[in-house]
Design a protein that fits this description.
The protein is elongated and about 110 Å long. It is 77% helix and 3% strand. It starts with a helix and ends with a helix. The chain has 301 residues and is mainly alpha-helical. A two-stranded antiparallel sheet has the order 1-2. Helix 2 runs antiparallel to helix 4, helix 4 packs antiparallel against helix 5 and helix 5 packs across helix 7.
Length: 301
């Protein structure tokens, strides 16, 4: 019982939901590793400090491996998830521990990326031309994603973004349909005189994407066309206002709303946990007082 209680305490300690020395230590390692990965992109610095960067990279990787092994020990059979009961109907379901699985994937990819030469590719020499080895090495950068796993604030933001994806996708579908209609109109009106911008449906969509990003579209696209078609400003202004201003602000609003709801859920969960802990402490204090009274009565007898 004591060992199980210790494991439960350790589980809460390493789960990344509380500000603990363990969390701060892992955060420090992740930041150091992220900085070293960025420095490795500079050829001049890499040639001069190759050995130091390699040592830092290996130390960080072994720390991540040790952390994963430690989590395997602490979580035991619950590393990948645990059986929970629904609050609505009481039915049991399997709740996946996405953060532990994410840690496992990141470490596996990191280990593969540090291999000196992937043995399989020695047989298939054709893969060298596709730079598969270099691509696998670059996958080591996914270790930076451990910041999302180990920092509770980033977790909340990430959850908010994920839950906003359905709304964003529907808004994007509307935006794509809106741009498609404008691309057809632009191809029919401006296609002959300006084939580089509206010569085909693909070129028209690309030009509208440029307008959406506000990337010099007035000087490069709009002004030359308006000189030939004076009323073309209606086409460009209406698209820029509706697509770039209204629809993009709707997407931002969906993300902000989703993050706000996720933060509220997190606060409610923390309040619920603190209330449960308070009830547990009160029950323990009552049990202790009852035991003390019983001991007093036994002494009197």
């Amino acid at each position: 019982m004591k060992s199980e209680k210790k494991l439960e305490n350790l589980k809460e300690y390493v789960d990344g939901n509380a500000d603990t020395p363990y969390e701060y230590a892992m955060l420090f390692v992740i930041v150091i590793n992220t900085i070293s990965l960025g420095i490795e992109t500079s050829k001049n610095i890499t040639e001069e400090f190759r050995n130091i960067l390699f040592i830092i990279d290996q130390i960080c990787l072994w720390i991540f491996i040790a952390e994963l092994v430690f989590k395997f020990i602490v979580f035991n059979k619950q590393f990948f998830g645990e059986i929970r009961f629904s609050e609505d109907d009481g039915e049991e379901y399997f709740h996946w521990n996405r953060w532990n699985i994410s840690d496992l994937i990141i470490v596996i990819v990191s280990v593969i990326s540090t291999l000196p030469y992937f043995t399989v590719f020695r047989v298939f020499r054709i893969f060298r031309s596709f730079k598969v080895i270099r691509t696998i090495k670059a996958l080591g950068a996914v270790r930076s994603l451990k910041l999302v796993n180990d920092v509770s604030g980033l977790r909340t933001t990430f959850k908010g973004l994920v839950k906003a994806i359905p709304g964003i996708l529907w808004t994007f579908c509307f935006l794509a349909l809106f741009a498609y209609v404008y691309a057809i109109i632009g191809t029919h009106i401006f296609g002959e005189e300006f084939p580089e911008f509206f010569g085909s449906l693909g070129y028209a969509c690309l030009s509208l994407c440029q307008i959406l990003t506000f990337d010099s579209w007035v000087s490069q696209i709009a002004r030359p066309i308006i000189q030939l078609y004076p009323l073309a400003w209606i086409y460009f202004i209406s698209y820029a206002f509706i697509a770039a201003s209204v629809i993009m602000n709707v997407i931002v609003g969906i993300i902000v709303d989703s993050m706000g709801k996720e933060r509220d859920r997190q606060k409610q969960k923390e309040m619920k946990d603190s209330a449960q802990n308070k009830v547990t402490l009160e029950q323990l204090s009552q049990q202790i007082s009852e035991l003390q009274n019983q001991i007093k009565e036994l002494k009197r007898d």
